[in-house]
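Protein 1 of 2
SEQ + STRUCT:
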Amino acid sequence: MDKSDRLGMDIFDILDNAIDKFDILHNVIGKSYILDKAMDRSDILQNVMDKSDILDNVMGKFDILDNVMDKSDMQDNVMDRSDMQDNVMGKSYISNNVIESIYLIYLIC
């Protein structure tokens, strides 16, 4: 093998080595692309989790609102009972007036 043949082989080896390195680089770029996609999906998942937390907070506020509404209903019941008590007191007052009127009629007669 003469010197020019060996030089041709060296150039061919260098070219082959460059192609191998290009393939490695291509694989790295492909893996980087896959990693970017995975990171994007991770970000999407994090957004979903954040929105789930927001939804949990909203649901908690609805629970608080339900409790407030229940307490308002209880207060309405107390007010209704107070109105009933006022009605009883009013009837008692009317009953006392009737008794006094009957007693006065009895005294007059």
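Protein 2 of 2
SEQ + STRUCT:
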Amino acid sequence: RHYSPGQVALSSSGVELTVSPVSASNTTRVPVAGVYAKAYDWGFGSYHLQAEVTSIVGTVSAFFVYGSSTSAAVMEYVSKPNWGNGSQFIRDTVAPQIYDTKGRIEVYIHVQLTPCFDSCRAQTVHNWGFSWRPASVTYGLDNTYSTKLTTNVPQTPGLVAFSSWSDGNPNYSQGPPKSNATFTVEQLWVVHNAT
């Protein structure tokens, strides 16, 4: 992944984060985008993002609070082809992540909605959200909160961020995309504890 300011643009629709195909001269660095808060004081609270994901396959659109590799609450929309039945999916997860003997994330620290319900399809603006409390993180789309994780719930504040990326991983993002893929964020609103 190669994060670059040139992959972020402001438009009348909002903040556009674009993942681009790799160049012929550099096939190992995928041009990707992200917006990250400077402060690491984003704690327990209610986090919401109004955004439109891309229909172009091979990317991940993410919304998260990240404190460290052992403290994060994450929502990801994966626009990956040929995953099981070929559907894109949403993954809600917390960190630290724990893996089984086959290298898969243990089921009790993430929920993967495959195929994601009809309302998460690309090219429509949706409200992403999660409620982070000391004992749980509850995730939802368009005010339907369907996932509640209670194991490895983050306990330390972090930074709030949203990003669009691909790393060519055949087991997750696949990609990089064959054409520019844009994740458009219209609004971000948060009510959180900063103590």
